[in-house]
Every structure is written in C-alpha cells, then in structure tokens.
C-alpha cells in the first residue's frame, strides 16, 4: 500500500509545481502569454486525472495565474473537488483558490454547502479554521442562511482559535442574511467578555462594524463598551471602541459628557500615537455633539488643538497628515480655535507632499473670514502660479472657487475683486475647470446686480482677447469661459460701453472654431447685442450706423449658417432672416428697435439647483401609473433584440428563481432608461440649473496645453492685487472713521461702565465695498421643505438596521432544518423522527428545538463507537440551546410590562446619569439570568411613566436612584393589593411561590398528556403530510403553514412541488414574478423513511371565518428501475384559531379591556369533560393559542389576540364535569368560530 | 474594513493580491495598475496615506502603504480602520513574513505565494483584522505547516527531494528585502498585545 503511494508520488514529482510554473514564467519573459497558455493546457490535463494530489497541484497553480489576471472560473468545479479532500494540505489549497475566485455568481457554490458544514464540524480545528477563512471571502446569501446556525454554534467552541474566526465571520453572515442578526446577537454580545483577548477583539470588531452603519441600535451597549474601554489594555481593541464611541456620541450627548474625562486621561497617559490620535478624534466628535450645550469645554478643545499642533509640527509626514485631517473636523464647530493656527496651515501649503497640501487646502476652506479672504486667496493664487502638475493646480482652482463662493459668497466683500480673480484664473494653462469658472461668472453676474456693469466690461475685454484664451487650439477647456462671457455681454448689454465693438468681436471668423455650444451662445447673444445697438442708434436718429450693424450681421452670419452644429445652424439662420427683414424695414426708415428689443425682454432669474426636485406633485397625479396599458409581457419579450438574450445567463435552478427575476427586472429597467434617454420627447430630470448650459461632451474635450511661457498681461484688465491694496486702504479709512465715532460714543457713554467693542477687527466691522444685493435663487411655489437625503438603496447595511432590543420572536429562529437533504440515516433515528408528532411537548418552539437536536444526531451518522460522543455532545449542547429559549421567555415577560425599548432605554438613562462604574442594573441586559430579567426591568419600566424624563443632575448618586425605584415598586404593590381580586402577579416573582401560569404553560401540577398541534393534511402510500398553522407576529396579514413531509415509501422522492388554489381571501405567497397558479418547489428531497419540514407563507385578508383551500402536491418517485410522477391532493384548513397568537396580558389591562364595553359577548357550555382543570386550561392554551391571565380555583380568565389585533377574552369555569366558557371579543363572528373550534377540540377527547 | 491587500514590486508586478470584495480579473489588474501608479510616483519621505483609489469603493477609502526595499505593501481600507493601526499591521505582517521565511526576500514571495496567503489568513479574515499578536500568528502558521508535513509523510519525501534539487539550480541570487536593516519609523506605537 505504502509502496503504491510512493510510486504514485514519484510519478507525480515530475509534474510542474507552483515553483516550476513561476520559474518558467520568469524564464519566458518575451513570450509570457504563450507560455502561460501552454501551462493552462497542462493544468487542464492534470485536472482531468483522478489523483487528488495532481488536482490540488493544478489548482494551486491556477491560484497563481488568477493573481496575474487570468480568469480561472472554468475550474470552479475542480476547486470544489480539491476543497472536499480529506487532507488538510489539499483542502487548504482548495479553499484558498475558492476564496480568490468564487463570488456570488459562481454557480458551483451551491454544491459546497454540505462540504463546508462538514468542515465546520471537523474535529481538526485547522479544517474548521480554513473553512471559515474561505467562507468569509465567498459567502453568499444562500450559504449564510444555511450555515448561520452552524457558525453560531462555533461561536461557543472550546478553542479560542475557532471562536474568534466564527465571531468575525458572523459579520459577513449578517450582511448576506440580515435575518440572522437578531438571533445571533445575544451570543455575540456575550463574546465581548470572552476570556480570550483575540475573541474579544473579534467581537468588538464585528459590533463596531455593525454599529458604524446603524449606530442607534447599539446605543444600549454603551455601558458595556465603556467598561471595556476602561479595563482593556489592548490598543487595537481600544482604538476600535473609541472609534465606535465617536459614532455613538452624536446620538446621545450625555454619553459624550461621560466620555470626556476618561478620554482626556488616555490622551495624557498613552504613548501610542495611534491611540492618542483616535482619542483626540473622538473627543472632537463629543465636542461637536455638545457644541450647543456645554460652554466650559474650551479646555478640552484647547487640549485637542494643542495635541494636533504637535502632530502637525512633527517631522513624520503621517502624523502631519492625520493632524490636519483631525483639525478639519474641529474646524466645523470651533473655527476660532483653529484659526489661530493659520500660520501653521499656510506653511503646510508649501509642503512637498501633495496629500498634505490637499489637506491643508481643505482646512483653509473653513478658515476664511471676511477679513482674511483676500489675503488667503492671494496666497493661493501664488501657489497656482508655482504649482507643477495640472491635478494639483486644478485642485487649487476649485478650492479657490469653493472658498470664495461658500455659503452664498458670505465672505466676499468686494465682488469686483472676485470677478478679477476669476478673470485671472482664466489664464491658467490647460485647466479642466473652465466650466467651473464660467458658472461662477454667470452666477455672480446674475445674482449680484451691482456688479453687472463691471462684469460686463470685463467680459467684453475677455471676448476681445478671446484669441489669447483659445490659443493655438480651439479644444481647450478654458474656452468654456467664453460661453459665460458671451452670455453676460449679451444679456446685460445695456451696461456695455461699446456694444458695437463687442458685437464685432463676437462675429469674428475665428469664433467658428469654438465648440458648437459656445458658438450657439455667441450667435444668440449677437442678436441681443444687435438689439441694443439698434436701440442706441435709434435714439440718436443715426440710421447710418444702425444699417451698418445690420450689414455686419448679414455678412458674418452665413459663416454660422454653414456650421455643422445643428443648434448653431438653426439659430444663425433664424437670426439671419430676422436681420434681413429688419434691414428691409430700416431701409424704409421704420423704427424697429423697440420691437427687436422686445424679443429679448424680461429678466432671467436664477433658479435654485434643487428647484426642479422640489416641485410638489399635484394631487391626484400618479407618476408611476401607466398612461397607456403596458404591452403584455410576452410581446415585449419578443420585440427585444436577440443580443440581449444572448447575454443573459442561463437560469440555474428553481431555488434561485427570485434572484433571476430581480435581475430581469433590473435589466428591463435599464432598457427602459436607455429608451428614455434616446427619446427626445422624454423629459429628463435636470441635474442642476447652473449646469443646464453644460452641453454633453464638454468633459470629454481633451485638454491641450497652451504653449505660453510668459505670464499674460492683457491691457485693460485689472489685476486682483490692486484690489487687495485698495481694499486695505478702504478698510483703514473706515476704521478710522469708526474710531472717531466710537470715541464720540465713548465720550458720551463714559462712566456707564460699558465695555468697548471687542477686538479692533471683528468680523462685523468689515463692510462690503459697495452695496451688494445678492439675489436669492428662485424656488417653485409651495416647494417641499424636506431635504431628502439620497441614501444608496443598494447599501447592504440598510438591511442590518434592525432593532436589537426587541424580544426575539419564534419566527426569527435561524432555520436549521430546511434545505438540508438527509441522505444517510440509521433506522433507529428514523423511528425517533417518526415519533415526533406524538411526543409530548408543551410548546411548538420546544418541539422545534427537539428536532434541531435530532438533526444534530442525524449528522453524526456513525455507528456504535460514536455513541458515547453523541451523549457527550448532547450534554454539551443542552445549556447552549436552552439559552435562546430562556431569552425568549424572559423577554416575553418584558414585553408584558412595557415596550421593551423603554426598559432598555431606562437602563441606559440610569447608566448615563449615575456613577461611571456600570451598576448592576446594566447586567439586566445580559440574557444569562432569566430571573433577573423578570424582576428588575419590569420595575424599571413601571417607574418609567411616573418620571417622564430623567432630568436629574449628573451628580445624583445611584443609590438614591435605586431607593426611589424600590419605593415605587412598593407603592405599586400596595395599589394592587387594594384591588378586589388580589393575586400574585406573575412578574412579582420575588413575592414567593409562583403558582400562576405564565405564557400559557402550566407548571407545578400533574404532568400534562402529550399534545401536538400538527394535524394530518393528506396521506398516500408514498408520502404523509402533517401541518400546523401559526400567525405571524410581525405581519397582520400573514400566516405561516409548516408542513412536515414524511417519505413512507422505499423510493426516493424528489422535485416536490406544493401548490394551492388561492381563494379571494387567502393566497399563497409566491416569489416575485411567479404566476398566481405556479407551485412552490419544496426545498429538499426525501430519501426513504425521512421526514422534513417546509414552511409556506399565506396572506389572508379577513380572518373572521375559517376556510379551506384545496391544493396539490406533485412529486417524482424515483426507485432504482423507474421514476414516476405522482400527485396528492389535500385540503388546508385555516381555522380561526390559527389566526390567534398567544399574547400575554396583565390582569389590570385585562380588566380595563373588559370594562371598556367594546367587546361583544357569547358563551359556550361543554358537558361531560372529565379532565383536571389545569389540563383543560393547558389544552385551550396549546391548541387555541390562549394565555392564562388569572386563575382562581376552578375559574380562570384567558386572553388571546388575533394577528389583526382583535382581543379575545375567555372566562372559563368548571364544576362537575361541566365547563362553561363566557367569551368576549370585538369581532362576534370570529368569536363564534373560535368557540366552535374549542368545542370541537373537547368533543374529540 | 480592509477592502484589499496588495503586494507588488517596484515595477508593479503583483506578488500577492487579496480582494475582500469581488471584482473581475480585469478590474483587479486595473486596480493593481492604478494603485501602483499612485504609489510609485510618491517620494520616499512623504506620508503613507493616499486618497483617491478610484476603483475600489471611491472616496471613502484610503490607501495605506509601506515600501520595503523592492516591495510595496498596500492596504486599501475604509474609514472604520485607524490609519496608524493599519501601518502597524503592515509592519506586523512583514515581520511575521520575515520570521516565517527566515529573512524574507522578494523571491520568497514570488515562489511561495500560497504560503504568504496562509500567513495573511491568520491576520486578516474577510477584510477584518483577526489577530495582531505576532507570536500567536506564527504559532498557528507553524502548527499548520507541521500538519502538512505529517500528512505528506513518506509519500511527500521524494517530491520534496526533487523540488530541493530543482531549487538548487535557481539562477537568481536572492535579494533580501532587508527588513532588519531598514529602520522603519513607527510612531511610538508599542506592538499590539
């Protein structure tokens, strides 16, 4: 045997291994591609062999080739083969390859589920580790759903190595299968306090990632994290926690107050820069959240700024960078404290490191004021001149414009200066941002009326010198500026000194080389200028000049009429004809100027960028409604071009039905969008009014540098520097005047003890040079005020926005049984399974739990020797599995008391308002001790309404608080004692023996007879179906039908399809896109003798009447020699009982409910019932989903609620085998039916 | 979250690429090229952070890199990671490689990409930091190597011998990355414990 292996490996050793491949590639540098293609051929041969070692070697080589950019997805199946090798060596190679090239679209991934599950439960920790690592890279929603439970079990593995990996991978599972978050969360929270630092770190990591996206759901964990922060010494964990707090503080300012002290301590004490930096960052976040409230945090700000200054001054570029980054955060709320470091930041602008320069630029943005804007911009302009490389210069340009235009030109005192800055910027060589400058010019000229005269003069000069801008080539980004210049000159032509000259400039032949959209504007505005010129000359009664103008246009316009650009052509020919007509009139001495001007009359007002979006939709207009009936699906499919079909992937299987359909929908949407885009009649949403002129293709104009080395000085263009000087002089003058005035004032007010105005140069002192009236942008009438945030609907984290404090519902348990074909099974276990329906279980959830265990057993498909292990395993699992159960129960009881969130919130309030060390009340949140949960949160919640808001000052002692609570509790008790019916309230568990009934279960009395809610659905020689119907807590119109399929034959049953004939009232929920008569595929196959459960969701409208639905199950019976199609008809009976949900109720709430008088009564008598009263109650509880509210001797009140919120109350009395039930409900027909069903239940016994 | 980990040499040849989000092979190569282009043109004494990895995730992400002799180690991370922490992680990674390969050089990475992957898998899993303690990482890596050896047993012996013979003919003289010599200034950061 050994010899054979050795022989095999000797054959093998001459195969090319990874090293040989690498060496070969290095030796074939000239014809690498060719060499690799021969290697791939070899690999393909190797993959065909049976020897797993050869395959693994081949897969290993493929992994390398994948890194070099070769698509190796064709080998996906072989990778799966290697993954499933029993040898760790090969397994690891397989998983590595899978992690590198598998993704959600890889179809063979479906085949891996069982293999991965096997590896996860492998006794070898490294098998498990490798599987977890691999899975973390390629987990899909299907894998996540099927394996969530297995991974959750691993979170409590004995080996920390496995635990930490299992904890970490849960994040990926949550992302792909958000439903798993709530069931898994309690255990994840537990892991925060794991003894192993690695596991703890992993748990912190996961929760931080989760909390970062949806912080509000994790606020209740703050006390726990606070404890960790003050106790942990692991810098990595500390950094994560501190970052998390940074995300939480904006939601809860009180948390910030608590954090400041320990964080400042850390800042002072730590030597690790990374930690220091994160602390400073979080302190900044805290300060931002507190900015409105606390004024006395200036010390903390000072500390932060001071520490950051040290970082910025450090010679380490990394620290400098981060310092600037953090500084920009402080800037937002405390600009003053940053502004004092302006020198330092300006210094950073000269840094050789571009990242640092960019950060410094960001900071400058927030540091400008009216006072220093000109100075800063001047400095930036210097940098623009010096800057090498267009990217950085473009960045500078945009920053200058951002800085100046920010918050509606708030800091600009002199718009003449700004216009000249913009004009200076047009001289930049080869910038990409011509359109940005242009839009600024337009914006300022339109909105600042006072500046128009100046702006027009400047623009006229620009137009006159257009040749300098366009340079040798017309394809320069900067020529966009001419667009603005031409428009401004035309629109505000009344300000032009010499319109004739400008008109001449605009009609130069060279213009024809400009991009089309600019030419169009030229032509249009030439017409405007023409109108102005006409008007001017008409006043002078100088017909000669006017006629010359017309002649000029008639001469020049034909050039544009020949333009290739449609827009230019159209406008030019229109205007040409118009001018020709005018010329005729002129020759007849008709006065036309007024009429021509009328063509362009009226003011154009700026429109706000969001205006279009904010136009309210008129009532009664449904934009989503079809105007015409859409063509039927099939037709439209036929019309589509074939290429679309060819691209489409073949549908893999039925279970992926929904996904395929979603893809299909998305595709259709895409097609429709394209159609709309190509349809000229379809009105598209305009992005912003300012960019409307931005014709498509501007961005694509390649940027070519102008070859001008000498800085341009255009005669007649003012330099911005002049303005800086002028401005300074003006300010000085003003100041002097003010001082005079102030002196006067002081003289007047002397003796009154009034402080002089602070600082000689405060913001308010600077007045704008000339009165500027900034026109606000127009908005549509009754615009919607809301600022809609554009969140990405595809963000996977959106699905994880789940309230974690809500109690766990039964329906949320992780699926354990579905999708798990059980192939091998020992007969003993089969019997085990069969007996399930008859076995005694109190609650269906417990039943499930039991089955889960059975499954565990099933997986251990081995013989006697492993039995011991199995027993051991069961013992191990017991506490773990009972835990969620306990959590459910305890949390249920919370729900009775008050909305659980308020209980949680009060815990947090308590923590936030008391001593820094988390008090015991916090422990309540841990699901470990069910008893504690039973008492304290209830108490806390009860005291909640009495104290509406926790307004206690920060320094209140916790003991005080506790005492108060206890007092309240006492009062509450006393109140209850006063009530007529005094009984133990079930949540007062501290009040002694608890003989009351909880959640419909009866304790402390004789054992109950076995009960099951599963009733027979249908049966034939092949298959037996039993079913149970349960309401859904979350959805008032949905019920879940659980069907257990049991294979009674000796053949294999497959392709089971479950279908129901919908009624008007009840419908089977089918995946999107499925027709109303399509059946649902049962997600498993049944080997002989095996049973499995599947769930189907039905939607119901009215629940007051019971009803029956007819249905069919079709399946294929496959035996060794043949396979036959079979079908089985059934009738699903939806009883009214199945719409009821066991809902606990307080006795006082119950009393109120009865008193309210909204309920209608009915009654029922049962004769000859000879069973103990508690059995009777248990039966009603179990079969009809009631819970016992109170019980006195042989009388009990019970309560239940329907999924649509109907209350059903029963008063059950018994004496001498006669049971009388008085019932009340707000829906009489529902009640009647429920009572009938109760009657039936007892008639059966 | 770490979005991607790339190692390439001074000429942009990839030595290891680990993407924690799926991209097609073409996009991956494009990302590597783009990242190389961004990183390689930076001076030695500028900061190790870089914004604007356009292909991966966009503006939220940062490139954090270190340059050792002939190799660039680049981590692409989002805002939830601490910049200095990741720099330190790169250092831990390189030191671990140094220990596992006994004075690591670029050739080790070239010929043993799978091993590098396995070491990395003990540090970072699915884009999240798994372990920062170097001795723990090395323990786990070595335990797994041991397992591989025991599995190979006698069957593996001849193959190993052949590969040893093949390696003797290696034309290149190994160039050291020289981790020990180049003093990398980690800002006062005590290694994570």
From TrEMBL, chain A:
<keyword id="KW-0963">Cytoplasm</keyword>
<dbReference type="GO" id="GO:0016182">
    <property type="term" value="P:synaptic vesicle budding from endosome"/>
</dbReference>
<keyword id="KW-0677">Repeat</keyword>
<keyword id="KW-0813">Transport</keyword>
<dbReference type="GO" id="GO:0043195">
    <property type="term" value="C:terminal bouton"/>
</dbReference>
<keyword id="KW-0175">Coiled coil</keyword>
<feature type="compositionally biased region" description="Basic and acidic residues">
    <location>
        <begin position="724"/>
        <end position="739"/>
    </location>
</feature>
<keyword id="KW-0007">Acetylation</keyword>
<feature type="compositionally biased region" description="Basic and acidic residues">
    <location>
        <begin position="853"/>
        <end position="865"/>
    </location>
</feature>
<dbReference type="InterPro" id="IPR017105">
    <property type="entry name" value="AP3_complex_dsu"/>
</dbReference>
<comment type="function">
    <text>Part of the AP-3 complex, an adaptor-related complex which is not clathrin-associated. The complex is associated with the Golgi region as well as more peripheral structures. It facilitates the budding of vesicles from the Golgi membrane and may be directly involved in trafficking to lysosomes. Involved in process of CD8+ T-cell and NK cell degranulation. In concert with the BLOC-1 complex, AP-3 is required to target cargos into vesicles assembled at cell bodies for delivery into neurites and nerve terminals.</text>
</comment>
<dbReference type="GO" id="GO:1904115">
    <property type="term" value="C:axon cytoplasm"/>
</dbReference>
<feature type="compositionally biased region" description="Acidic residues">
    <location>
        <begin position="775"/>
        <end position="792"/>
    </location>
</feature>
<dbReference type="GO" id="GO:0006896">
    <property type="term" value="P:Golgi to vacuole transport"/>
</dbReference>
<dbReference type="GO" id="GO:0006623">
    <property type="term" value="P:protein targeting to vacuole"/>
</dbReference>
<feature type="compositionally biased region" description="Low complexity">
    <location>
        <begin position="924"/>
        <end position="941"/>
    </location>
</feature>
<dbReference type="Pfam" id="PF01602">
    <property type="entry name" value="Adaptin_N"/>
</dbReference>
<dbReference type="InterPro" id="IPR058898">
    <property type="entry name" value="Mu_AP3"/>
</dbReference>
<dbReference type="Pfam" id="PF06375">
    <property type="entry name" value="AP3D1"/>
</dbReference>
<keyword id="KW-0653">Protein transport</keyword>
<keyword id="KW-0597">Phosphoprotein</keyword>
<feature type="compositionally biased region" description="Basic residues">
    <location>
        <begin position="975"/>
        <end position="988"/>
    </location>
</feature>
TrEMBL record, chain B:
<protein>
    <recommendedName>
        <fullName>AP complex mu/sigma subunit domain-containing protein</fullName>
    </recommendedName>
</protein>
<dbReference type="GO" id="GO:0030123">
    <property type="term" value="C:AP-3 adaptor complex"/>
</dbReference>
<dbReference type="InterPro" id="IPR011012">
    <property type="entry name" value="Longin-like_dom_sf"/>
</dbReference>
<dbReference type="GO" id="GO:0006896">
    <property type="term" value="P:Golgi to vacuole transport"/>
</dbReference>
<keyword id="KW-0968">Cytoplasmic vesicle</keyword>
<dbReference type="InterPro" id="IPR027155">
    <property type="entry name" value="APS3"/>
</dbReference>
<feature type="domain" description="AP complex mu/sigma subunit">
    <location>
        <begin position="1"/>
        <end position="147"/>
    </location>
</feature>
<keyword id="KW-0333">Golgi apparatus</keyword>
<dbReference type="InterPro" id="IPR000804">
    <property type="entry name" value="Clathrin_sm-chain_CS"/>
</dbReference>
<comment type="function">
    <text>Part of the AP-3 complex, an adaptor-related complex which is not clathrin-associated. The complex is associated with the Golgi region as well as more peripheral structures. It facilitates the budding of vesicles from the Golgi membrane and may be directly involved in trafficking to lysosomes. In concert with the BLOC-1 complex, AP-3 is required to target cargos into vesicles assembled at cell bodies for delivery into neurites and nerve terminals.</text>
</comment>
<keyword id="KW-0653">Protein transport</keyword>
<dbReference type="GO" id="GO:0006886">
    <property type="term" value="P:intracellular protein transport"/>
</dbReference>
<keyword id="KW-0472">Membrane</keyword>
<dbReference type="InterPro" id="IPR016635">
    <property type="entry name" value="AP_complex_ssu"/>
</dbReference>
<dbReference type="InterPro" id="IPR022775">
    <property type="entry name" value="AP_mu_sigma_su"/>
</dbReference>
<dbReference type="GO" id="GO:0030659">
    <property type="term" value="C:cytoplasmic vesicle membrane"/>
</dbReference>
<comment type="similarity">
    <text>Belongs to the adaptor complexes small subunit family.</text>
</comment>
<dbReference type="GO" id="GO:0005794">
    <property type="term" value="C:Golgi apparatus"/>
</dbReference>
<keyword id="KW-0813">Transport</keyword>
<dbReference type="Pfam" id="PF01217">
    <property type="entry name" value="Clat_adaptor_s"/>
</dbReference>
